[in-house]
Amino acid sequence: MSKKTDKLILALPKGRILGEALPLLARAGIEPEPEFSDPATRKLRFDTSDPGIEIIRVRAFDVATFVAFGAAHFGVAGSDVIMEFDYPELYAPLDLDIGKCRLSVAAPQSVVAVDNPARWSHVRVATKYPNLTQRHFARRGVQAECIKLNGAMELAPTLGLCRRIVDLVSTGGTLKANGLVEIETIAEISSRLVVNRAALKTRATTLTGWIDRIREATEGGRDAA
To answer: How far apart are CA 205 and CA 208, in angstroms?
Structure first.
């Protein structure tokens, strides 16, 4: 854990999930300092309305790593990230009911029209999720050769890098715009509260209290909806 402060460190993801997470955290009593909302700031660590908590803002894929290795005590991470890394140090006690989407296999319509998934023995796939993808196909006896990309996944089939991709899908608009269609859904995705297991033992009362407050805020949000 951090040696520079006794405060709890909360890791939040940059990007679209952040906009959904902030109102939920505000209902639980955690609001970042005003500079957090300043697009010009270069800070990554912020005070909050609670003197016992600081926020760090990191890439969505890095939240799980910061929490698992104890640089942050708890955080908000997508279930896709949790499943991809599968850190034993992570405890995910709460589905926050935000950041909903799905992790899917997609391919060009021209490929789907002549393809028979039952005959697959080896597939080449572009994805940000090589571990998840390999496990998914292995369950069907298919060897997946994964090409790791961090973005612009939809370009891979059209430029001949591979025939299929595995990526997050929300509305499907990006797939359609790039001539791709979903073949199958690997998992339904949402954001979870993740907690470092060691921290939960050493600071049990404080962290359990915040888990309960965030749970109440989540349930309150569902009731309001």
So the answer is: 5
Strand order, beta sheet including 45-47: 45-47, 53-58, 8-13, 74-78, 191-196, 90-95
- The answer to whether the Cα torsion of 64, 96, 92, 208 is positive or negative is positive
Structure tokens at 210: 């915040």
For residue 75, which amino acid is it? G
Backbone angles phi, psi at 67, to 5 degrees: -75, -45
Tokens of 189: 């995705």
Q: Which residues contact 16 (CB under 8 A, 6 or more apart)?
A: 99
Which residue type does 126 have?
Answer: A
Q: Do the beta carbons of residue 192 and residue 78 sit within 8 Å?
A: yes
Do 70 and 198 meet the contact criterion of CB atoms below 8 Å apart?
yes
> In terms of Cα–Cα distance, which of 97, 90, 75, 100 is closest to 217?
97
Q: At a CB cut-off of 8 Å and minimum separation 6, what does 101 contact?
A: 168, 169, 170, 189
Question: What is d(CA 20, CA 99) in angstroms, rounded to the nearest whole number?
Answer: 7
Tokens linked to 100: 């909903």
User: What is this structure's pTM?
Assistant: 0.91
Q: Are 103 and 166 in contact (CB under 8 A)?
A: yes
pLDDT tens-digit profile of 40-86?
999 999 999 999 999 999 999 999 999 999 999 999 999 999 999 99
Q: Could you give the C-alpha distances from 107 to 2, 30, 62, 85, 181, in angstroms and in order? A: 44, 42, 28, 25, 6
